[in-house]
Structure formats: structure tokens, C-alpha cells
């Protein structure tokens, strides 16, 4: 990944409490996994930002290297990589996601 792409990802992840790299947008997800993440965050009433990786090939590949995670969507909370759709569903179901987000938004 080139330094410019890394710097851009760094900035997105650190300036947004909850950042989702996904296929599509929060208003129009382009895959079921991205839609799952958007639905969970919307149900919790959490403000979050998204970046459509389909519109940016550099970010699409770079984010996989950045997190060392092969799939999209990718969710970051307070600058930390949380995971993708399956992990978010699991954290939501066991209540950990709500706690993590409350702490993040309070800081």
C-alpha cells in the first residue's frame, strides 16, 4: 500500500468514532454483509461514517492490508479494528457491541 493511501485510512479511522469501510453507502449498501453492519448500527442509533470501497480501488485493497483482514466490510471503533459482519453480529447478540460503542462515544 502506498503512503498516501495509508495516511488517508489513518485519518478516516482516527477522526471518526465509528468508521465502516463497506461496499456501497449507508443509504444504499451494495452487499448483504455491508447491509448487516449498517442495520445493526442503525438499530443502535449510533452515528457512523462510511466509505464505499467500490468507488476507490486504492482503499479497497489498502484497507485489507491495513487491518490484515481479507474481507469487507470492516468496522473501526475509536481507531481500533473491530471486525466484519459476522463479528459485529456476534458482538451485538452478546451485548458487547453496545458497551464498546457507549464507551467510544463517551470518550
From TrEMBL:
<keyword id="KW-0001">2Fe-2S</keyword>
<keyword id="KW-0479">Metal-binding</keyword>
<keyword id="KW-0408">Iron</keyword>
<keyword id="KW-0676">Redox-active center</keyword>
<feature type="domain" description="Glutaredoxin">
    <location>
        <begin position="18"/>
        <end position="82"/>
    </location>
</feature>
<comment type="similarity">
    <text>Belongs to the glutaredoxin family. Monothiol subfamily.</text>
</comment>
<dbReference type="InterPro" id="IPR036249">
    <property type="entry name" value="Thioredoxin-like_sf"/>
</dbReference>
<dbReference type="InterPro" id="IPR033658">
    <property type="entry name" value="GRX_PICOT-like"/>
</dbReference>
<dbReference type="InterPro" id="IPR004480">
    <property type="entry name" value="Monothiol_GRX-rel"/>
</dbReference>
<dbReference type="Pfam" id="PF00462">
    <property type="entry name" value="Glutaredoxin"/>
</dbReference>
<protein>
    <recommendedName>
        <fullName>Glutaredoxin</fullName>
    </recommendedName>
</protein>
<dbReference type="InterPro" id="IPR002109">
    <property type="entry name" value="Glutaredoxin"/>
</dbReference>
<keyword id="KW-0411">Iron-sulfur</keyword>
<dbReference type="InterPro" id="IPR014434">
    <property type="entry name" value="Monothiol_GRX"/>
</dbReference>
